[in-house]
Amino acid sequence: MGKKGKKSKAELEAERIEEERLAEERRIAEEKAEAERLERERVAAEKLKAEQKAYREEELQRLQDELRDEEGNLPRRRSKINALREEAETDRNWTHFRNCVQVPTGDDALAVNGYLARLEQDMNEEKIRHDFAGRFTIEHSLSRIEEIEGVARGVEGARADALARGDLSAAAACDVQLHNLRDAVVQRLNRCTADVLQHSDDYKLVNEQDPDKREMLACKTDDVTGSAQATRIAIWANLKQTMQRGPFKQLSFGDGVDVHVDLPKALGTQRLCVRAMVLGGAHVGPTRRNSEGTLLQRRASMDLPEGEDGSLLAGRDMLPLGGSVQVEVLGLPPPARRLKQGWFVTPVTGLSTSVDVKPFPEYEEDKPFRYEAKDPEPNKYIRLRVSLPPTVVPPEEEGALRVMWFDTACDKWVDGTTCEIKLAGREVSWVSNRTGVLCIAQPRTLDLPYKSWSLSPALPAVQDGPSEVEEACAVLSLETPRMTVRIEARGDGSCRLVGPDRPELKPLMTNSTTAGRLIAELSKCGIHLAPDALDEEAVASRGGTWAAKDEQVEQKLCEELAALAAGFDVANDPSAKGLPSGRCSVRLRETAMYVAAASGQETTMDYDTLLVERDHASKSFQNAMDCGALPAPGVKCQLVQGGSASGNPETDRPFDDSLAPGAESHVFLARAARPVASDEAFDRVGAAPLKFQQAVEELLHLTRPFSFC
């Protein structure tokens, strides 16, 4: 084969020109194709925009027609519920009046204010001298305190009911009354303490082994009914400076007080008094506050103390367990002087009617506490052991149990003044480097956020009427990190705890009450299920994608799901946890509970996914913003495709907010659920009493499962 000849310059130039021509043709063809593609996309986008605008216009017209059709229905329903509340309150007050009881209930604010005025008059020293010859005994004091605490419990109930219906101003007024009632309790405890110390010979301890030792002890409690909120007081005094063996003076206050105090040698040998009190509420008396506001009003400012190292909790994030424990060192009044056989002179000083609280160990009372991560110095701490009330569920998590101290310099509860906190059975022991007002506590968010929740119709756990009569009843189930709490709401508007079955919660499982009072009692038991804005911040600080739902979205879900509670099962949607605050998804289906109860066989139906969202957060609004929006509150709902989050990667699918087949958006949940439910379900919904709907709505409003799950 011969050698290939070399191309000439002309041939090379021709090839170059041809390649350039072909490249130019390709470029022109590509540009034309790109232009055609862009034109098709433009036409499609314009068509889509026109379709979206047309859909939005049609949607707005349809939703506005729906609003006109239902105009006035919800306001009338709310006014009827308010009328039922007022009627129940009037009945309670009238019954109380007919019984000729002088002590007011917490529902009558005017009567409570009058009672507070009488309490203030009773503490006038002239009146005490006239009525009791100047004596204000511990027995008289505690009998009156028992009465005051009864009124305080009524005010607590009224406050809980106000919070349940969203009346924050009424709740704040109750908080002030409760604050003043507890001030009256502390005032009487101080006055009777002064009386005990002034007449210490009446409480003198006889020590046959050491006749020179002069001590006195007075222990008393108002717990005549076994109440967990009993006021307990113990007063011990060393009336003469003595010698002591061992590093601690051990004081074990029995007689129902159940407080044990170990004093260091520096205190146990001095002439002084130690007072231990257990109050039913976490209250701080007027002599230990600088502010006129209540502790609840000041809670937001109760931040971490200076020097904290990340191991402490702020006072605003703590839940008191079993009230407060007040351990104080008091100065003694001057001793009586003996004039001659059988005659003594007792000096009358300011300590005859008041107490002199001495800080221990000595510290600057006007300087805020600063945390120092070190053990307390020898002889500068006390050891305490206190029994938790029988109705408190103690936390089992390591480090959850805390003891707070009230810092009078800045009017706030602080963590970090105690160490070696131990829980043995129901006894809590700790070492404290401060005396004063202490409080056993746990984090408020220990049971938050919920793992899951559901609301379903149910047969009453206890049937009051004929078994053939179908009574509206539903159970709200909240699965918390520690337990599953189940609350039953019934047709008469009462609520009762049905789970968990624990001995601490037996009173709540046997007695029915209102939704607000039940949730408040659970909080006293250490199960806090009424989160507020500060709890939102505490949960959000843990990180993650959690966000509280928009207030209008929450309100709509609470109100309208409560109206459907007699005929539908509702539950959280695990696949929609990442939705923003303006959108909330729940699973909903017609209940099969009544069919299962009649047939004796369990019947289940598939859930549908209901998306409730602010109109401004919806896709239809974002796609056609120039068409306008729904009027306030501007919340709509629709059945959507939803998703699945069972934990199985093969079957799980992400949340899909596109409309379900045949579905369309609505203003009201009942209309959105109509295509997937029978007439029988809506007959049950229509027959449900308003009191039942009110109870369910208050439970949802307080527990906020839509935000905290």
Describe, in plain words, how this protein is organized in 3D.
- The chain is of the alpha+beta class and 709 residues long.
- The protein is 35% helix and 21% strand.
- Strands 1, 2, 5, 6, 7, 10, 12, 13 and 16 form a nine-stranded antiparallel sheet that branches.
- The termini are far apart.
What's this, in brief?
It contains 16 helices and 25 strands.
List keywords for this structure.
nine-stranded antiparallel sheet, 35% helix, 25 strands, elongated, 16 helices
- What does the radius of gyration come to? 35 Å
Q: Would you report the number of β strands?
A: 25
Question: How many strands, which pairing sense, and closed or not: the largest β-sheet?
Answer: 9 strands, antiparallel
Globally, the shape reads: elongated
Low-confidence stretches: none
Strand content: 15-25%
Distance between the termini: 85 Å
Multimer state: single chain
Helix content percent band: 25-40%
What's the rounded overall pLDDT mean? 88
- Helix and strand content put the structural class at alpha+beta
Count of DSSP-assigned helices: 16
How is this fold's topology laid out?
Elements: H1 9-69, H2 73-98, H3 109-122, H4 125-132, H5 138-164, H6 168-198, E1 215-221, E2 232-238, E3 248-253, E4 259-264, H7 265-268, E5 272-279, E6 318-320, E7 324-330, E8 337-340, E9 343-345, E10 357-358, E11 382-387, E12 402-407, E13 412-414, E14 418-424, E15 427-432, E16 436-443, E17 452-457, E18 473-479, E19 484-490, E20 495-499, H8 506-510, H9 515-524, H10 533-540, H11 551-564, E21 568-572, E22 583-590, H12 593-599, E23 608-614, H13 619-623, E24 635-644, E25 653-659, H14 669-673, H15 679-687, H16 690-703
Antiparallel strand pairs: 1-2, 2-5, 3-4, 4-11, 5-7, 6-16, 7-10, 7-16, 8-9, 11-15, 12-13, 12-16, 14-15, 17-18, 17-21, 18-19, 19-20, 21-22, 22-23, 23-24, 24-25
